[in-house]
Amino acid sequence: xxxxxxxxxxxxxxxxxxxxxxxxxxxxxxxxxxxxxxxxxxxxxxxxxxxxxxxxxxxxxxxxxxxxxxxxxxxxxxxxxxxxxxxxxxxxxxxxxxxxxxxxxxxxxxxxxxxxxxxxxxxxxxxxxxxxxxxxxxxxxxxxxxxxxxxxxxxxxxxxxxxxxxxxxxxxxxxxxxxxxxxxxxxxxxxxxxxxxxxxxxxxxxxxxx
Length: 210
Fold this sequence. Notes:
6 helices, alpha+beta
């Protein structure tokens, strides 16, 4: 299908979301890729991953860019040649990018019960105020928390950062679409402004350092 939705976050940032319903051939038709991207794509064994890769390039086009405007640094973090910031995420049937004048990170997750099995590995601090017996939307809240930590990690992108020990999400109301989080790593104590939304069975979280 065409672009699923776009969202103007503020005067500095815009979010783009694609629902991946096309076949690989449909997505690939007319799409130009630089040689490094063609090599990366040909090395993907999963049809799902290839479609996700191409859907991100379709989002780039929707944002006024092309694959030739995107590059990755040594750590795998994406950048745009014009100096604007970009963050990318895709999961199963959706992909999303955010393009911004300020540093940003995004995460897109399918809400699944299996996240409950690893809650203690990344949300020990948050579980002090979040209980599966008291919150009937426990899975949805937990998915937001995971997404927050992924988005912040994409912003900082520093080896050694632990989701459980270094990134903390303050209690939030899911209906507001806003939250606050903090990174405590080394000598750095940094607050982050968090926004999130739900589309179908997915949660999108994006973050900006305050």
